[in-house]
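User: Can you recover a sequence for this backbone? Please restate the input before giving your answer.

Assistant: Of course. Working from this structure:
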């Protein structure tokens, strides 16, 4: 008597193989530690990233209007003024996709309640070394 996989067993096995092969073949995004940065250093990193960026934009999330972020027209000085201590600040090295190269993403999310603002700054990795803070390499 042989052993036969049920349909749900086959699905679980295919999913396990797909997840394992995804992990092996696709490098994941890398989140740089930012907890040690002061507010001034975060602002300076945003300014430098903005000078070197390929593109940047601001989204707004206002749950009174929508459950998804919406692109908003805002100048850089205005969004940078919103960077304060309750913000979620990130520096992420994004993995390549079919439509983009590997890049560095610098930005933050305000944490003040409705509405919340998101700054996205995309920097080509060729320019990433120029983002180092003074005294860091």
């Amino acid at each position: 008597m042989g052993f036969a996989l049920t349909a749900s067993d086959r699905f679980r096995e295919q999913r396990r193989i797909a997840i394992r092969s995804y992990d092996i073949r696709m490098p994941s995004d890398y989140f740089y530690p930012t907890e040690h940065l002061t507010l001034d250093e975060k602002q300076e990193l945003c300014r430098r990233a903005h000078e070197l960026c390929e593109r940047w934009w601001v989204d707004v999330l206002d749950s009174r209007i929508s459950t998804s972020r919406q692109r908003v027209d805002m100048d850089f000085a205005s969004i940078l003024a919103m960077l304060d201590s309750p913000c979620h600040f990130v520096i992420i090295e994004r993995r390549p996709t079919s439509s983009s190269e590997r890049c560095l993403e610098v930005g933050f999310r305000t944490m003040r309640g409705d509405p919340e603002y998101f700054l996205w700054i995309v920097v080509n990795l060729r320019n990433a070394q120029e983002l180092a803070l003074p005294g860091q390499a």
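That completes the design. The chain has one domain: 27-131.
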